[in-house]
Amino acid sequence: MSAAEKYEVFLRISDSSEDQHLYLVEHWFVDRPGAETVRALLDEAKRDYGVLYPDAMPDDFSVEVRRLRPHDTQRPPVTADVA
Q1: CA torsion through residues 42, 47, 53, 58, sign
Q2: Which of 16, 36, 64, 66 is an S-S bond match for 59, by CB 3.0 to 4.6 Å?
Q3: Is the pTM of this model over 0.70?
Q4: 8-state DSSP, 77
């Protein structure tokens, strides 16, 4: 793996309506996170959701672990002609 490659863990928690109570968070890692790390991040996200929306019941949970290559994480250089 290239030193410039990274991993992203993207967590999504929402209620059944998905438009009133939505919590999204991402974490970046140099090495692929293990299952225990991902589980701990999901537990933390559930706690944060409960703090943000104490009266809402989370119904939808989504976890994605993505491998990001350098072209996924680096923006192209800005040129002088761009206004």
Answers
A1: positive
A2: 16
A3: yes
A4: P
